[in-house]
């Protein structure tokens, strides 16, 4: 079983760092700050940072070094529009990747039968209640990332309305841990209300962490301190 999934099931609230770039130093910074897991990326342009990530073969050396350098679970977004393949997922599994995360509308059906890596899918702002009901019934979905904010709201403060929407999703997806990414400019003080809403993990990215070693470590440490106090 995915180590991240085990963590989400055992802790009140967990912390994931979505790396601003595939970097050994930034992965180390996240772990030093207290992250429960880190997430890397392949074959996409990141919506928030604008950084372009290469193919598995291009990113393999740094991914292998990240896996050797940290003891926390390492996950990956294996692609967006370009998708992935059964062969690529098998290779990621052999490398030691703990979980994969893709937007649900790009996720191939064979991800549902992935045998060992945790399967996280990201929903966008076009979901509805009946859709969530269907998603909750799929045994091949382990975790759901609630990436529901439209791009024009990126970087804005978290609001009561946002938290209510996350709470509704968590209630509808009672069998799946919900992860909230920092599309909004999440602050450590937001951790308590997100936990009360039923969120199981906060995934902080460049909008909350910055992009340097010091910024990533400090951001992770500040979130960790609040999460541990809950």
From TrEMBL:
<dbReference type="InterPro" id="IPR011060">
    <property type="entry name" value="RibuloseP-bd_barrel"/>
</dbReference>
<protein>
    <submittedName>
        <fullName>Uncharacterized protein</fullName>
    </submittedName>
</protein>
């Amino acid at each position: 079983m995915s180590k991240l999934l085990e963590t989400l099931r055992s802790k009140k609230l967990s912390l994931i760092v979505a790396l601003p770039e595939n970097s050994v130093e930034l992965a180390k910074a996240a772990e030093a700050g207290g992250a429960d897991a880190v997430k890397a990326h392949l074959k996409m342009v990141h919506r928030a940072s604008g950084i372009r990530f290469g193919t598995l073969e291009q990113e393999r050396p740094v991914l292998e070094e990240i896996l050797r350098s940290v003891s926390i679970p390492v996950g990956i977004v294996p692609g967006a529009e370009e998708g992935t393949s059964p062969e690529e997922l098998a290779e990621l599994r052999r490398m030691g990747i703990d979980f994969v995360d893709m937007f649900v509308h790009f996720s191939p059906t064979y991800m549902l039968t992935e045998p060992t890596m945790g399967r996280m899918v990201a929903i966008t702002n076009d979901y509805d209640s009946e859709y969530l009901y269907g998603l909750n019934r799929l045994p091949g979905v382990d975790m759901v990332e609630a990436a529901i904010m439209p791009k024009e709201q990126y970087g804005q403060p978290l609001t009561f309305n946002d938290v209510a929407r996350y709470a509704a999703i968590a209630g509808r997806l009672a069998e799946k841990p919900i992860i909230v990414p920092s599309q909004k400019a999440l602050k450590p003080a937001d951790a308590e209300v997100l936990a009360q809403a039923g969120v199981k993990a906060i995934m902080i990215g460049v909008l909350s962490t910055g992009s340097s070693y010091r910024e990533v470590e400090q951001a992770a440490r500040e979130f960790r301190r609040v999460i541990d106090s809950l």
